[in-house]
């Protein structure tokens, strides 16, 4: 059998061989603790600071504003809880969009159960947050606001520039989850006044288990992990040096290659969109223009997502069913429900996310397999009258 | 249990067997709903009780699609009795072992759709005027259709018959919409529970949809009785027109000889009904209307056991039903509030509360709220307690009096079903929880009978059953309905 084709880069990207190369020295041979004073420690610390510089460079921050974490979820949790707990005691209100990744959504729900009032900001049918509704929800006692940079399921890019400026003007801390966006959308925190920004290594051709939170100078944050005071006290625990080195390399490569990647991914994405546009009862979810360059999110009428993913898997193509995080149980994605879809529609969605290494041939082969799989499943579907 | 699908599941997913829909099926069944995320549909072609053709469709996860395919393969070409015996465990084996956690509902979903297709098949054979003309056929063979409600009595009934060497087919009736569970894939459901119980005993299980029949013969009669000042007994109406006829229909279709239920009673020569071993559970009072020809093919295995023994048998054999609570209420009014139930169906007209001399003592909100013998809720204060002695639906009057005014020493009985010579009637029971009273009977000109009681009784309500017993008190001579005064 030929190698399966991977079109689920929104779940995780392949590890770039150049990234792997840069990690290997830290996994074997001389290893030091970055907190140690001796030469071993020095060497590890050097790696750490080089990576910090590279990540900072990718998003336009200064290295001192980067906190390394175990990944996107920890970064989001640190931001949500950290901002909430460092706010003045009378500030017990949060403004959060309905299309957040589970990391922000669940952390916010936890805040709510701890007594926070939460204003959940709805979206239009394309998943776009309405800035007017957002502004109207901000109050003097708002401790934080959070809106995802680009939604992980449907790929819609939110008006973060505008929202961040509004919050900056009112002195309200603003967090954005940019896990899907970093490396695929130009980001410059020097121009976009977010307070905190979460990113992850493995969506960026880096290793899994490592991420970072950008924390703007002057923004105060309570840690959620206590211990030896590493990462300026914001994230105690000996750093994952190999992982962080890999993240650094991935960030460096992204900075260098971002324009080419965007162009390539966009071309493949549009090819899939054009190919599926001709298929009956297949429609695109998410905003057409304000969209991640690698994301195609489809409703396939009369076909349940998991079965479609597995039939395609048997044909050698790996795609995502809805959101990778919510497909474990048969629960409709809250993001799609927020976009006004019915539960039934929400069970019939798949996500195809291309990457920098996919080819036109792979995409063409996918389109053929997709068409075959959909036809086969519709033939046995009681909910599709073709 | 693994998180991944087995090779068999993936094979059925990628190469589904018997996919599609029959153009002119004998039966069609659907289960699940789109909001649950899974829908299964089966169409079957049945001839001579053999599943000659089967097609399935599924919208749902891979497990559901594969389960549908595997189930279709298991039942294709099989006799209905074998097809209806295929259990969740059999299906799981065909799919290469336990499904991943959270996917077990796939087995229930597709089995339910197939069984609904069988149900549709039976219903299209019986027609809407179901079973009215059903009669018994020859008896003697060791095959029996056992009615199974999901409770402990009917489960043990089926089990005892199986252990006695009978070929047993279990049947559950859909009688009304008050049953628990609307999403069969998600919630507990009486039919699903009964099916699981039957399958665990290795028995084929069928379902018959009797909602139209039950509505017409039992529920409408129940509601109508209150409007007409009578006190109905819906279990009697069900035994008279529904349960035994439906079981007998299925027995005839399957070529089976007997029918069985979990009632506590015995069938004696005559045939007639005889009291069970456990007199505290005696149900002969509600079984009097079962037609003779149906009774002649009926077996009541529990007539030989005490209730405590029945529970012990269920526990010993590991039946999950062993611990189900005793059902007391009318099955279609689970909360027991039958007044509210009746009031939802009829418009009650206010009227007068009067004494036996016709003097108005007060007002009431509707005759449907009253039955003869009732003491509470009359709304008129008096030095001695007042009882309802008569309900007059035409004039809207509720007559009240003292307790002794309720005493009667003769009872009119109509709609009789005699098992033995009426001359053998030595006593009569006029209430479910009452005791028989010595009497003599006499036929009137219009087919009705009168029972002359040796001593007066109170609380004889029109609409209730009057059941006559033999001199030794052990056997039922016959039964009928207590007639309204003056009717």
Provide a quick synopsis of the model.
The complex is a heterodimer of chains A (386) and B (487). Chain A is α/β, with parallel strands linked by helices. Chain A is built from 11 helices and 13 strands.
Portion of residues in helices of chain A? 25-40%
Instruction: Please estimate the helix content of chain B.
Output: 25-40%
Global Rg of chain A: 21 Å
Beta-strand segment tally of chain A: 13
| Top CATH class of the largest domain in chain A | Alpha Beta
Radius of gyration of chain B: 26 Å
Q: Give the H and E element order of chain A.
A: EHHEHEHEHEHEEEHEEHEEHHEH
Provide the number of structural domains of chain B: 4
CATH topology of the largest domain in chain B: Rossmann fold
CATH class of the largest domain in chain B: Alpha Beta
Give the DSSP E fraction of chain B (strand runs of 2 or more residues).
15-25%
Low-confidence stretches of chain A: 323-329
Give the arrangement of secondary structure elements.
The complex is a heterodimer of chains A (386) and B (487).
Chain A: E1 5-6, H1 17-27, H2 39-59, E2 66-69, H3 72-86, E3 93-97, H4 102-113, E4 117-121, H5 131-137, E5 142-146, H6 160-170, E6 174-177, E7 196-200, E8 211-215, H7 241-277, E9 282-284, E10 295-300, H8 305-314, E11 317-318, E12 320-321, H9 334-338, H10 343-346, E13 349-353, H11 360-379
Parallel strand pairs in A: 1-11, 3-4, 3-5, 5-6, 6-7
Antiparallel strand pairs in A: 2-8, 7-8, 9-10, 10-13, 12-13
Chain B: H1 7-14, E1 27-33, E2 38-47, E3 50-59, H2 62-75, H3 80-83, H4 88-94, H5 105-126, E4 143-147, H6 152-163, E5 167-174, H7 190-200, E6 205-209, H8 211-227, H9 234-241, H10 243-254, E7 258-260, E8 266-268, E9 272-274, H11 284-287, H12 292-295, E10 298-299, H13 307-316, H14 338-345, E11 351-354, E12 360-364, E13 387-392, E14 397-401, E15 408-418, E16 427-429, E17 437-443, E18 449-457, E19 465-469, E20 476-482
Parallel strand pairs in B: 4-5, 4-7, 5-6, 7-10, 11-14
Antiparallel strand pairs in B: 1-2, 2-3, 8-9, 11-12, 13-14, 15-18, 15-20, 16-17, 16-19, 17-18, 19-20
Helix pairs in contact in B: 1-2, 2-5, 6-13, 8-9
């Amino acid at each position: 059998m030929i190698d399966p084709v991977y079109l689920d880069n929104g779940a995780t990207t392949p590890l770039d061989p150049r990234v792997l190369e840069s990690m290997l020295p830290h996994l074997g041979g001389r290893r030091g603790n970055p907190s140690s004073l001796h030469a071993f420690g020095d060497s590890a610390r050097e790696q750490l600071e080089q990576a910090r510089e590279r990540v900072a460079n990718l998003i336009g921050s200064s290295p001192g504003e980067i906190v390394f974490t175990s990944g996107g979820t920890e970064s989001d949790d640190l931001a949500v809880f950290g901002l909430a707990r460092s706010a003045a005691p009378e500030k017990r209100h949060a403004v959060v969009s309905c299309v957040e990744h589970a990391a922000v959504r669940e952390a916010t729900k936890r805040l709510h159960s701890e007594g926070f009032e939460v204003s959940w900001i709805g979206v239009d049918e394309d998943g776009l947050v309405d800035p007017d509704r957002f502004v109207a929800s901000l109050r003097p006692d708002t401790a934080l606001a959070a809106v995802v940079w680009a939604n992980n399921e449907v790929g819609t890019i939110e008006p973060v520039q505008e929202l961040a400026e509004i919050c900056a003007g009112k002195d309200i801390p603003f967090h954005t989850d940019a896990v899907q966006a970093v490396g695929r959308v130009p980001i410059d925190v020097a121009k976009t006044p977010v307070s905190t920004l979460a990113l992850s290594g493995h969506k960026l051709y880096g290793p899994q288990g490592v991420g970072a939170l950008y924390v703007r100078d002057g923004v105060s944050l309570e840690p959620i992990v206590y211990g030896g005071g590493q990462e300026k006290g914001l994230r105690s625990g000996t750093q994952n040096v190999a992982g962080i080195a890999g993240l650094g390399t991935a960030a460096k490569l992204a900075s260098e290659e971002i324009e080419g990647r965007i162009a390539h991914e966009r071309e493949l994405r549009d090819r899939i969109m054009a190919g599926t546009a001709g298929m009956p009862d297949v429609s695109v979810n998410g905003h057409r223009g304000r969209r991640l360059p690698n994301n195609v999110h489809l409703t396939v009428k009369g076909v349940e997502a998991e079965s479609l993913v597995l039939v395609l898997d048997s044909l050698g193509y790996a795609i995502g069913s809805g959101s990778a995080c919510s497909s474990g149980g048969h629960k409709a994605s809250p993001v799609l429900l927020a976009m006004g879809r019915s539960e039934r529609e929400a069970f019939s969605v798949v996500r195809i996310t291309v990457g920098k290494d996919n080819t036109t041939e792979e995409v063409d082969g996918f389109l053929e397999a997709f068409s075959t799989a959909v036809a086969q499943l519709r033939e046995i579907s009681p909910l599709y009258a073709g | 249990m693994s998180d991944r699908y087995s090779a068999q599941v993936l094979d059925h997913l990628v190469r589904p067997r018997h996919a599609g829909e029959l153009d002119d099926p004998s039966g069609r069944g659907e289960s699940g709903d789109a909001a649950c995320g899974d829908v299964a549909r089966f169409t079957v072609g049945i001839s001579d009780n053999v599943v000659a053709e089967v097609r399935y469709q599924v919208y749902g996860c891979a497990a559901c699609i594969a389960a549908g395919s595997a189930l279709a393969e298991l039942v294709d070409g099989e006799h209905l009795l074998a097809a209806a015996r295929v259990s969740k465990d059999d299906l799981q084996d065909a799919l290469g072992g336990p499904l991943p956690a959270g996917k077990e509902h796939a087995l229930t979903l597709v089995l339910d759709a197939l069984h609904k297709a069988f149900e549709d098949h039976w219903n299209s054979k019986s027609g809407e005027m179901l079973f009215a003309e059903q009669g018994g056929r020859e008896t003697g063979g060791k095959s029996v259709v056992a009615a199974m409600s999901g409770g402990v009595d009917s489960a043990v009934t089926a089990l005892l018959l199986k252990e006695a060497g009978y070929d047993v087919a279990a049947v559950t009736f859909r009688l009304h919409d008050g049953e628990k569970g609307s999403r069969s894939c998600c919630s507990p459901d009486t039919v699903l529970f009964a099916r699981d119980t039957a399958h665990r005993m290795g028995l084929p299980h069928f379902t018959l949809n009797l909602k139209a029949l039950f509505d017409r013969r039992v529920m409408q009669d129940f509601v109508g009785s209150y409007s007409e000042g009578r006190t109905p007994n819906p279990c009697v109406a069900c035994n008279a027109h529904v349960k035994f006829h439906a079981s007998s229909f299925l027995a005839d279709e399957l070529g089976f000889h007997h029918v069985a239920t979990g009632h506590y009673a015995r069938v004696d020569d005559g045939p007639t009904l005889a009291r069970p071993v456990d007199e505290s559970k005696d149900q002969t009072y509600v079984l009097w209307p079962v037609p003779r020809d149906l009774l002649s093919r009926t077996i009541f295995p529990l007539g030989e056991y005490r209730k405590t023994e029945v529970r012990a048998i269920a526990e010993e054999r590991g039946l999950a039903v062993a611990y189900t609570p005793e059902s007391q209420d009318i099955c279609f009014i689970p909360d027991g509030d039958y007044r509210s139930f009746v009031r939802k169906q009829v418009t009650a007209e206010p009227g007068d509360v009067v004494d036996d001399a016709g003097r108005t003592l007060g007002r009431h909100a509707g005759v449907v709220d009253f039955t003869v013998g009732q003491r509470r809720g009359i709304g008129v204060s008096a030095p001695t307690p007042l009882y309802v002695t008569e309900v007059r639906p035409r004039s809207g009057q509720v007559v009240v009096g003292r307790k002794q005014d309720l005493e009667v020493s003769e009872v009119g009985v109509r709609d009789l079903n005699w098992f033995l010579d009426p001359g053998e009637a030595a006593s009569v029971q006029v209430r479910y929880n009452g005791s028989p009273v010595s009497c003599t009977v006499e036929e009137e000109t219009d087919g009705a009978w009168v029972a002359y009681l040796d001593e007066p009784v109170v609380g004889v309500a029109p609409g209730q059953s009057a059941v006559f017993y033999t001199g030794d008190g052990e056997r039922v001579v016959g039964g009928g309905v207590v007639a309204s005064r003056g009717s």
